[in-house]
Amino acid sequence: MSLRVGVDLGATKIQTLLVADDDSIVARKRGTTPVTGGPSAVLAAVKETIEHLLVRADQPASAVATIGIGAPGQIDVAAGIVLQAVNVAGWDQPVPVSEIVGDMFGVPVALANDVQASIVAEHRLGVGRGRANLLGIFCGTGVGGGLILNNDLWLGTGAAGEIGHTVIVQDGHRCGCGRNGCLEAYAGRGALEQAARQQHQAGRPTMLFELMEQQGRSRLTSRVWLDACLQRDELALELIAQAARAVGTAAGSATNLLDVDCVVIGGGLATRLGDRFLNDVRAAAQPVLLRSDVASQIVLSELGDDCGALGAALVAGDRLSQR
Amino acid sequence: MSLRVGVDLGATKIQTLLVADDDSIVARKRGTTPVTGGPSAVLAAVKETIEHLLVRADQPASAVATIGIGAPGQIDVAAGIVLQAVNVAGWDQPVPVSEIVGDMFGVPVALANDVQASIVAEHRLGVGRGRANLLGIFCGTGVGGGLILNNDLWLGTGAAGEIGHTVIVQDGHRCGCGRNGCLEAYAGRGALEQAARQQHQAGRPTMLFELMEQQGRSRLTSRVWLDACLQRDELALELIAQAARAVGTAAGSATNLLDVDCVVIGGGLATRLGDRFLNDVRAAAQPVLLRSDVASQIVLSELGDDCGALGAALVAGDRLSQR
What we know:
- The structure is a homodimer.
- Chain A has 2 domains: 3-118 and 306-321, Nucleotidyltransferase, domain 5 (2-Layer Sandwich); 130-302, ATPase, nucleotide binding domain (Nucleotidyltransferase, domain 5).
- The first copy, chain A, has 11 helices and 12 strands.
- Chain A has helices spanning 38-57, 97-105, 114-125, 184-187, 189-201, 208-214, 222-230, 234-258, 268-273, 275-285, 307-321; strands at residues 3-9, 13-19, 25-32, 64-71, 74-76, 81-84, 109-113, 134-139, 143-149, 152-153, 262-266, 298-300.
């Protein structure tokens, strides 16, 4: 049996999976992304997480055929280099991820865009099975997107899928990317945290930051948002509703333009919040959609937290076996 | 020589072309779309315009092999029926256009969505020649869109391309379609006329309606808008700038999502206003685009007023020759 490792390298966590020949998941291990120390600290944490994964599965490193890494930001897929990942602390310069991780394990490594890997996984093994045309909207620290058209990943001239940076409010909120009115400025966890901090500092009561400290976090994770919503924290409910509305507006607009079979809503925030989030997204999309019967085609990711890492394993397996 | 007739059936005008085997244009004739009398009056005007076209080209009806009609609104292409065209007066019920016009001339007739026909024409014979992936944004009474992906018209599950009804301002202006914040509510001539009337009635000076009357029109045509802009009418300049900004925002967002090679800006308004409009569109798209070098890929339609009718002739020729 040859095993594939999949890594989803996020701004807050490192999710790793060991994947068998039949695409089943053999083991999982999650690590935390270091917020100091830059790329070398992050890649050391990747190494450690994969080592723990192999221990957990009771497998030697020699059983691993390929490693696939899904990463955010701008990526040179062919060269295996993350050019820039603004949401990951200290990754403002190019990092040759494939080479470094390849040397660590003596195994071929392929790099993929994290959300592109995610939509490939949903298409092949998740909620998008049997659908030819899919749009994925993944709400994490930022908002990423991926497109499958005619059963293939759609890249355009190379950079397609960026629904997080489509404008939903002309002259709207400032986005982390420096533009105005992007979906990400309303639905990315980074933007939501910034808005929560501002309102909290201005005197608005919220338990968000207490929960964060109780959970030993330095950021408002998806879990913190969920817990605050479950306890009916007003500010949390308001900002999450804003995020869902923004995602629904963008999903509706993109459906009017592309008329895909299915829009997959995923990422940490959507996965944690689940159906309550989905229902708000659908309710916001409904008045935008030209065809009134298609809001039900907006669905939650089926693979949840496994999505990115599984997709990275699949993409790497495909690409490296073609060599 | 077998000739094809192409008809662009718009809310304000009926543009007809006679097209030769080599896709060159043999003759043109333009008629006015009746605003009273409903479908029968409009189709009688189509008949008359085609008859004048044939007289102008000195050709008998028997020289015509096919007629293609591009129409706005919801269309059942296979059945040749316009289901609904809200921008054409009285077309709120299904009209079997192919059958009626076919009986008039004893020639096979094919119906196409007007903007889909337009982007096919630009792809095959216009500014999109040699580009595999194109988005067309056509500003007329409404704002239509068409997509070419991998050299084929992209229909999704059947209704793709509706960039006019993508949201550029969440909770924004009311659109003629009943939704809020659509591109069409900012850049369609119908919305622009409504805004101009409201401001004029509220006391704001403008020469728009004088020009309209001088030109014997009951609506603010693209020519009226152009003339008012040329005379530096403040309200006209302001509303046209709003329209161009809206188109640029939508063009930028769609490029971030699809990363097409080229965005073609067409339709009566863009064709009349030309480079001044294009430059405003590009300026508005620039701050939205993730790739800063691609604003120049937003270009004006090369076929202008011929675009829709030429595309209808091409699409009909293709489809009817396959029978």
